[in-house]
Amino acid sequence: AQSVAQPEDQVNVAEGNPLTVKCTYSVSGNPYLFWYVQYPNRGLQFLLKYITGDNLVKGSYGFEAEFNKSQTSFHLKKPSALVSDSALYFCAVRDLESNYQLIWGAGTKLIIKP
Amino acid sequence: KAGVTQTPRYLIKTRGQQVTLSCSPISGHRSVSWYQQTPGQGLQFLFEYFSETQRNKGNFPGRFSGRQFSNSRSEMNVSTLELGDSALYLCASSLVAAVNTEAFFGQGTRLTVV
Q: Which one of A25, A53, A84, B57 is most buried, by most CB atoms within 10 A?
């Protein structure tokens, strides 16, 4: 079965520093990976996706993610964190064995301190 | 282009009652998924509909049901409400259910069972 793991419940970063939110996956076949962000009392917003091609994927709000097949990882990154980046981040993978259902990680709370 | 609309935004119900939540997907989107989000359990998949057919179902009791109409609007129903059903219920729509399509989320319905 496909699965996604976000090993950190919370990540704390100082404003202006680079940030990384980790995601690892387990799939049979090619992975189709997504990152979403959720602000308080809101729905999830799509950030970026990896389907095929370049391992570095650029997305919304200055975020990017690096796909690493050998490490089965898809970490979310940003060169310089903003206080407004503080939110809950979810990684997801399409489950090809279950009609392309999205399988979600548990989420990582990102806190950017001024 | 209007986003995913969920109504109502907030609901307070009493144990034992039933509730119906509504989701209007983005125009042209045929796939609608429902999720339950609680602080301790993260995002839990309820079900997915595509062209009025249920394609996937999560591991929830039969008290949780849903349907999709010919215009792609979807409703979910919870009967015999329990205190543990208090959660944010999120709806997401996709153009189609395919590996490379991202889902777009509504702002959710906050259900409180007292």
A: A25
* Plot region of A16 (φ>0 → left; ψ -120 to 50 → alpha; else → beta): left
A44 contacts B92? CB cut-off 8 A: yes
| Among A109, A75, A107, A95, CA closest to A3 | A95
Average pLDDT of span B2-19: 96
Burial (0-12, 13-18, 19+ Cβ within 10 Å), A53: exposed
CB-closest option in B42, B43, B55 to A99: B55
Nearest CA-CA partner of B51 in B72, B65, B35, B66? B72
Give the C-alpha separation, B89 to A4, whole Å.
Answer: 21
One-character DSSP codes across B75-86: EEEE-S--GGG-
How far is residue B102's CA from residue A35's CA, in Å, rounded to a whole number? Answer: 10
Bridging pattern class, strands A108-113 and A10-14: parallel
What is the least distance, in Å, from the CA of B49 to any CA of chain A? 11
Q: In degrees rounded to 5, what are phi and psi of residue A92?
A: -145, 155
| C-alpha triplet B41, B82, B20: angle, nearest 5° | 90
DSSP lists the bridge partners of residue B64 as: B78
Which residues on neighbouring strands pair with residue A10, listed in sequence order? Answer: A109
Percent of chain A with pLDDT over 90: 79
Q: Rounded to whole angstroms, what are the CA distances from A57 to A18, A73, B31, B100?
A: 16, 13, 25, 14
